[in-house]
Design goal:
By secondary structure, this protein is mainly β. The chain is built from no helices and 12 strands.
């Protein structure tokens, strides 16, 4: 997929062959299924979130003092370790951070400096994913660059 100006949010159950797309918003996009756990640290405020199906929520936070964003993917209930991802990229610089692995409660936090820039962020829990491409832009610039489908590979 390529970004073509408009931001997209993709939530998919890839294993089941289901892919759903909806317009992204600058504010929270959907009802959180898991509470933010504060792991980004002091000074970080939640600026956006996306449900990852009914199994969790991916949070985007921002620290106005440092100009850094942080992403964390949180499961609704702690349980057996499952594949999880927390992903964050500064669209303008292509600097990205990823935390992926087998986790019981959350993936991340990951941090990227993005004062005045758009960010691409998302998360995965099991075979469900939620992504937001080119949102929360400090300069309200349009998203640029390739979009990510974690299960299909990068670019």
């Amino acid at each position: 997929m390529r970004a073509a100006g408009a931001a997209l949010v993709t939530v998919g159950a890839i294993g089941a062959g289901l892919l759903v797309s909806a317009p992204a918003a600058g504010a929270a996009t959907g009802k959180a299924t898991a509470a933010y756990n504060g792991v980004c640290g002091s000074g970080y405020k939640v600026v956006n979130s996306l449900p990852v199906g009914s199994v969790g929520t991916v949070y985007l936070t921002y620290n106005s003092s440092t100009g850094k964003n942080c992403t964390v993917t949180v499961r609704t209930t702690t349980g057996k370790a499952t594949y999880m991802v927390a992903y964050l990229r500064n669209v303008g610089t292509d600097v990205e951070q990823v935390d992926e692995g087998q986790y019981r409660s959350y993936a991340g936090p990951v941090y990227v400096a993005a004062r005045g820039a758009c960010v691409e962020w998302g998360g995965v829990i099991g075979n469900l994913q939620a992504w937001n491409y080119g949102s929360n832009c400090g300069t309200l610039a349009a998203a640029k660059g390739d979009q990510r489908d974690w299960f299909a590979g990068r670019r």
